[in-house]
Design a protein that fits this description.
Layout: E1 7-15, E2 18-27, E3 32-37, H1 46-56, E4 60-70, E5 75-79, H2 81-98, H3 106-110, E6 116-120, H4 125-169, H5 173-191, H6 197-210, H7 214-231, H8 238-257, H9 262-282
Parallel strand pairs: 3-4
Antiparallel strand pairs: 1-2, 2-4, 5-6
Helix pairs in contact: 1-4, 4-7, 4-9, 5-6, 7-8, 8-9
């Protein structure tokens, strides 16, 4: 099952306390990299969110943002009545001692440590965030899988084309030496020189050895079968496909270097064009 590394999802959870939204943007990357943007009330659950992501995503760059829009203030203010009374009594005492009224106002008093306390309203925001994250990851994977199916179809089609091109070349292997022999004879006749038959046969044997493409054809077909097997795998195969494509390119290059006819040259070029199209798409596979 092929998953693309590029996708986007936006999910929301809304209740009487407010709206929590989650945006996830997935991009190509060699490894798994997660950038989190969380509101203050969810900083504590960052490790849990990262763990949830790692269980669902194996490769790619993820930009994850959570936003919380409360329908009412999430904090309540409480005045310490006992401390306020003590401060008032202390102010009276100081007024009596210095016989001068103290210039105090509410702002000054509220700055006194411990006089004003804030209490966060608990709406189980962490639990809601983790549930929303799981929902977002499911939606993201569904999108990644849909795109992955398109990538798989595209790559499979190119692999079929390469296989057909290579298979069509196999029957012509046996004619290469005969064609070269005829070219040498035509050239000798054109120049008007005589060549020993043994020397001619030696040249043909050397030519046959240098231009033998049976091994390259066999390896190309084997690598194509392995690529198909990877495309049907249930585990992430992006890196393996990338490596296998390098091997396919190597065989195509070797095939081109042994080209003894325009037909083989054309086959090598066609293979490399198709392999480059595959390479561009493999970069998107997890």
């Amino acid at each position: 099952m092929i998953f693309s590394m590029t996708a986007y999802t936006h999910q929301e959870h809304q209740d009487e306390n407010g709206v929590l939204s989650c945006d996830i943007r997935a991009l190509n990357h060699r490894y798994l990299e997660v950038n989190l943007k969380l509101p203050d009330g969810l900083k504590e659950c960052e490790p849990l969110i990262r763990d949830a992501i790692r269980t669902q995503i194996k490769r790619g760059k993820l930009e994850v943002s959570l936003y919380y829009h409360p329908s009412a203030p999430t904090t309540s203010l409480t005045i310490n009545d006992i401390l306020a009374t003590q401060l008032a009594e202390a102010a009276k005492t100081l007024t009596t001692i210095f016989q001068t009224p103290l210039q105090l106002n509410a702002t000054d008093l509220l700055k006194w440590p411990g006089l004003l306390t804030t209490t966060e309203k608990n709406h189980n925001l962490v639990d809601i965030a983790l549930q929303l994250m799981n929902t977002s990851l499911v939606a993201l994977n569904e999108s990644r899988q849909r795109e992955g199916q398109c990538l798989q179809a595209f790559i499979s089609e190119r692999l079929n084309d390469i296989e057909q091109i290579v298979q069509d070349l196999k029957p012509h292997q046996s004619t290469l030496v005969a064609e070269q022999r005829q070219r040498l004879l035509d050239r000798i006749q054109e120049v008007g020189v005589s060549v020993e038959q043994n020397r001619l046969e030696q040249e043909l044997v050397l030519f046959a050895h240098k231009t033998d493409i049976a091994e390259e054809i066999s390896r190309l077909l084997i690598h194509i079968d392995e690529a198909r097997r990877l495309l049907d795998s249930e585990t992430p195969v992006g890196k393996k496909l990338d490596f296998l494509l390098q091997e396919l390119n190597r065989e195509a290059n070797t095939l081109g270097s042994k080209a003894a006819s325009l037909r083989i040259t054309a086959v090598a070029i066609d293979c490399k064009v198709l392999l480059e199209q595959i390479r561009e798409q493999i970069q998107n596979i997890e």
